[in-house]
Amino acid sequence: MAPTTAAESVVLLTGGTSGIGRAAVRRLAATGATVVTVGRDRERGRAVAADVTAETPGRVEFRRVDLADQSAVRNLASAVDDEYDRLDALVHNAGLSSKERRETADGVELTLAVNHLAPYLLTHDLVDLLGATRGARVVVTASSVHRRGKIDLDDSEDLDALNSRSGYDALDAYARSKLANVAFTLELAERLRASARTEGVVANCVHPGFIPTTGLYRDVSWRAKLLTRLAGAVPGVGTDVEEGARRLVAVTTDDAYADRTGLYVGGDGPEQPSAAARDAALRERLWRLSAALVGVDPDWP
Ligand SMILES: NC(=O)c1ccc[n+]([C@@H]2O[C@H](COP(=O)([O-])OP(=O)(O)OC[C@H]3O[C@@H](n4cnc5c(N)ncnc54)[C@H](OP(=O)(O)O)[C@@H]3O)[C@@H](O)[C@H]2O)c1
Questions:
Q1: What CDD domains does the annotation carry (predicted)?
Q2: Structural domain tally of the chain?
Q3: How far apart are CA 140 and CA 116, in angstroms?
């Protein structure tokens, strides 16, 4: 997204109805961009679209989509592909943590489905539109929590492990999904670079900071809620949605990130992600399993 063409830019940002995403929608629309945003809550989504469109030079369009549903993700991609002839940035920001193990209609554990598989499938289905847009960017809201994530893909139980079938712990499932975000971004960056179809498309991920005031912590255990509140009260530990949105939007629009790819970016710029996220064999395996879970050919873009 070069600043000179900001007014023509089209951004698709998931999870713009609340928290970091809602603040990021406003910042993006302030550049004059058209922002298509999605979430499940129609009322909050319509309010964001109306308020931000009225108050900024940009335009915000809300679509009600449940990203846990793979057919809804496919429909979203095809609607964006039909309606727009460019996609300057695809920002995967929607995310959740679920206190109990829930399974989607597609038979996938909910945290994995929304936080990782939806970005995988949406990027897959929009990769040609991204490739056709000069300087397009893919940005993923990851987390420093990815450092405690484990993805054990050593045996035939791969899918079960990824799906938390062998025992569920909410924080482990969330951390695993955030590790998947970083591993996916790094693998995507390499693949985008290697494909003639996606010349110039970059992929980076962001840690927005620990922000205890968002909706992310609404479905965690009472113990986790208490710990989050306590940690948030310690000076210097937490930050706010504006800082999270600032980080996300910087990677999405700043010239400094236009030609950089495969980065994990924190508050002070690029950081080294965990060893697991950098493990090329794990990334490749995760890529193939993700393709199988959403029913696409893994050899893309
Ligand atoms: N807050 C933190 O401390 C923190 C730290 C590191 C990373 N993050 C990451 O930041 C991102 C944004 O989270 P947040 O903290 O701003 O939390 P939030 O206020 O709960 O926002 C989450 C957004 O995701 C959307 N979403 C959740 N499930 C969805 C689904 N099934 N389909 C469609 N949209 C869905 C929500 O929309 P609806 O409610 O309308 O469905 C909402 O707009 C997440 O990826 C999170 O993992 C947060």
A1: retinol-DH_like_SDR_c_like
A2: 1
A3: 10
Please tell me the distance from the alpha carbon of residue 235 to that of residue 224, in angstroms, as a whole number.
Answer: 19
State if residue 17 touches ligand 1 by the CB under 6 angstroms criterion.
Answer: yes
CA 224 to each of CA 97, 213, 231: distance values in angstroms, whole numbers, following the listed order: 11, 14, 10
208 pocket-lining for ligand 1 (C-beta < 6 Å): yes
Looking at residue 110, its amino acid is L
Q: Looking at residues 275-281, what average pLDDT do you find?
A: 97
Q: Determine the pLDDT at residue 100.
A: 94
Distance CA 206, CA 209 (A): 9
Its domain, for residue 36, covers 3-294
- Residue 231 inside a domain? The answer is yes
Q: How far is the CA of 23 from the centre of ligand 1 (A)?
A: 12
CATH number, domain of 253, equals 3.40.50.720
Tokens 């995310």 sit at which residue? 95
